[in-house]
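Record type: monomer structure entry
Structure origin: computed from sequence
Chain ID: A
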Amino acid sequence: MQALAKVSKTLTMSSLEIAKLTKKEHKNVLADIRKVLEEVGINPAVFSAVYKDQQHIDRPCFILPRRECDLIIAGYSANYRLTIIDRWRELEAEVGVKVPQTFIEAMQLATQTLIENESLKEEVRALTDQRDDLQVELDQSMEWLSIKKVAAYNNLHWKQIPWIPLKRHGIQTGNIPHKVFDANYKDGVNVYHRESWVAIYPHLIMPGDEK
């Protein structure tokens, strides 16, 4: 069985070759792979494969991409890690990356890379602007307020303000609580209408209230 495969330009290394390079028994390498992958929440079955031994009997093995291979050997000795790193370099050299042979080819490659980088920068910039606009919209809103915003405004911990009464009042009055964007929370935050705040917690100062 070949220890290396190339699929869609992705290099992989088998547990057999790892065992050979590190002079470890293959069964021990298999155990290492299962243990490490499970520790980081990766199902080892994703990389499972079989090979035929000298008796032509199917035996289990693993086929690992560079990232997972580096993860497995992280706990090996420095000498073993260096051996595998050197092997990866050999494999990558065998696959080969086209190197510009003329000044024109080099400039074309540089231009293409620049275009791709600028395109990525534009996408990131657009997303950042969108996020900032939404954050400004949230900050300027005085009708819908989150518990954490009101708590901070009143120098309280947000857990000191129960949300259930606010939700219940909002449903009863037709001001249904909902989620809005917040740059600090990937899932957004729940907000409750100002009318509910005033009705349930009249002693609290709301953002925007005149002092």
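Annotation 1: Helices lie at 15-22, 26-39, 66-73, 78-95, 103-140, 147-153, 164-173, 194-200.
Annotation 2: Residues 1-9 have pLDDT under 50 and may be disordered.
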